[in-house]
Amino acid sequence: MLHKITHILDKAGLAWISPVVRLCAGENPREQGRQIFRLIGVPLIAILLFLGAWAVIAPKVETNVGTLPGPAAVWEQAGGLWQDHRAERERRAEFYAAQEQRRAAFEERFPDREWTAREYSGRPTYIHQIVTSLKTVFMGFFFASAFAIPIGIICGMSKTVYTAVNPLIQIFKPVSPLAWLPIVMILVAALYTTDNPMFERAFLSSAIVVALCSLWPTLINTAVGVASIDKDHLNVARVLKLSWHTKVIKIIIPSSLPYIFTGLRLSLGVGWMVLIAAEMLAQNPGLGKFVWDMYQSSSSQTLSLILVAVFTIGLLGFLLDRIMLTLQQLVTFDESSV
Amino acid sequence: MAFIELRNVSKGFGPPGPNRVEVLRDINLSVRESEFVAIVGYSGTGKSTLINMMAGLLKPDAGSALLKGAPIKGPERDLGLIFQNYSLLPWLTVYGNVALAVNAAFKNWSRKERDQQVRRFVDLVNLTPALEKRPGELSGGMRQRVAVARTLAMDPEVLLMDEPLGALDALTRGELQKEIAAIWEKQRKAAVLITNSVDEALLLADRITPLNLGPGATLGPEFAVDLPRPRSAAALNKNPTFTRLRGEITDYLIEIGRAGKASTNDKIVPLPDVRPLDPSERASRTWVS
Ligand SMILES: Nc1ncnc2c1ncn2[C@@H]1O[C@H](COP(=O)(O)OP(=O)(O)OP(=O)(O)O)[C@@H](O)[C@H]1O
Ligand SMILES: [Mg+2]
Question: What's the rounded Cα separation, in Å, for the pair B271 and B29?
Answer without folding.
Answer: 32
